[in-house]
Amino acid sequence: MTIAKVSSASQKKFFRPRRWFEKIMALIVLVNYILVIFDLTYIPLRDFWLQGKVQVYIKIGTFEREIPKPSLRVIPESVSDFITQYDIIKGIEPYRDTALYLDKVEDLNEAVNQLVSQQAFTDSNTAENSEFQANIDERLADLRERSREMIADNPFQVANKTGTLERIKNKMREHVFDTEESSAKDAFEQFWSEENFRRNSWRDELNFFDQQIAPLIATNYFRPVGENGEPVENFGLIDFPFFLLFLTEFLARTWYISRRHTGVSWFDAMLWRWYDIFLLIPILRFLRIIPLIVRLDQSNLIDLKAIKKQASQGFVAGIAHDVTEVVILQVVNQIQGTIEDGTVRDILMRQNTKQYVDINNVNETSELVKLMANLVITKVIPEIRPEAEEFLRYNVDKALTQTPAYRGLENVPGVKGMQHQLTERLVSQLYEGLSVGLQGLLIEDPEFDRLLEKLVEKFSKSLGTELQAEHSIDQIESLLNDLLEEIKINYVQNLSQENIENILEQTRALRQGQQTQITQYR
Fold this sequence. Notes:
Elements: H1 8-42, H2 46-51, E1 53-60, E2 63-73, H3 77-83, H4 87-90, E3 93-94, H5 96-121, H6 127-153, H7 162-177, H8 184-191, H9 194-200, H10 202-218, E4 221-222, H11 235-260, H12 266-272, H13 289-298, H14 305-340, H15 343-349, H16 364-383, H17 385-401, H18 404-409, H19 415-440, H20 446-467, H21 470-496, H22 500-521
Antiparallel strand pairs: 1-2, 3-4
Transmembrane segments: 20-43
Keywords: Membrane, Transmembrane, Transmembrane helix
């Protein structure tokens, strides 16, 4: 039976749909997370989505400033109207009192426009003009009353926008009295008076209100409370289809993993994909950033290798010297504890009394000696012969030149050549003799083996006997303890003070060099 090897082309065809599936699912998770973040930030940013303008309000003590002034529109009005349709999802409704207040201002604006148009074509004392004027006075009185109620009742509190009401009052005080220290009620009373509009022009005053006050009042809203005691929240209607998709994919994927890997249960596979569980939890939705990042990285839509490398290296740099110091100190302390417990003493004392167990009737020590001798004599010595002869030649020449008798004959003709021949013959004989003598050791000789074993055994017993002396054991233990203390002081301290960043830099250089070599070989 033969097993056909799957070709790389077939593997690519098999994995291509899987890669596309991973990319599509990662993009769906990204879309879901964008919706989650939009939902979580919609209430805090609703003023921006409603008006489409950017303006920063700064108040530090008596210092108060709006930057820029006037506010800068960055979103078209049509886009703002589309985005604020999301009020339905959050259960937001216009606040009845403030919305009616703006409607009354709009009615006043229309009445003023009608009066101005009528006065342009008729006498100002006509009955029709008087009727328009009475209508305007009635609306001004109504707005003064509504302003007092707005300040007293604070309808902005329901939406947690009391600060907005304070800004409205400050703007009105500064506009009417050029100071924020006066009464807000008096400022509204003065503003919604016929004398103020006649003195400062109807159009200018109404434009001020439309540009500075009306946008702030329009940000107020009412959000009903559900039976659970929390504000109405309909985001689940949007999130539920994603939940069904993620749940189906999670169950199918974990089942596939449990079937593909031996010994992995379905529950184990779910733990394998633990980060996907955040996609199924309806609370703490912002934690879906975890499966999002993992999926984007796995689908190669983003590359987190550099980030993961820096994170792991930062973690290593943070704990490396602590771990190094703890591990080495623990090892040294264990060795010291072994010495203090008398373990070394017991080993030495029992060396001659404990019966040795031989499991193969072979003296491993003598066999190792013969094996090493065989390697040296048969392999090493022939290989190094030129260098060895050169070394011997140098030393023989040096010994001859330092001999007084040779120095006296050095100038005699023919002595130099004779000395050279003598040296070559002597070196050759020495090396041959040494080689032959060593090769003789390899000849099977029972008597040689017996004597070698006897020598090794006698050496071991003599060494053990001397070490068992009380003063020797005490001295050995004392020296070992002192040596370990010096190691802790000199080497462990140096390790803990080592520049971890330099070590990591060397590690990165090694990895980069290995990767370069792998790429070249490919």
